[in-house]
Amino acid sequence: xxxxxxxxxxxxxxxxxAEGGEAVVEAGQAIVTAGSDGGLGKLGLxxxxxxxxxxxxxxxxxxxxxATAAALSGIARNPGAASKIQTPxxxxxxxxxxxxxxxxxxTFLLQSKI
Length: 114
Fold this sequence. Notes:
It is built from 4 helices and no strands. By secondary structure, it is an all-alpha fold.
């Protein structure tokens, strides 16, 4: 919430010093007070929850792709070590996926506050 307030203030700061800046200040204060009664704050929570799970899933997908590619490259070079490579790869993929599940749980917690 404080980041959003700071962003609003940073956007309206140049206009405050212009002639007739009182109207801009009043508009900025209206936006800030709207956030304190739930309007802007709930919107921020909704956007943050959606972005959070999207970013977490995207980055986890990249990590899983790189881990799988490295494991398959190792198996292609030494097929006899497939069993020794496959188990740590699956454990690593499970740990990567658990981070996405944690992000999903946090998203549900944020959504319940809306």
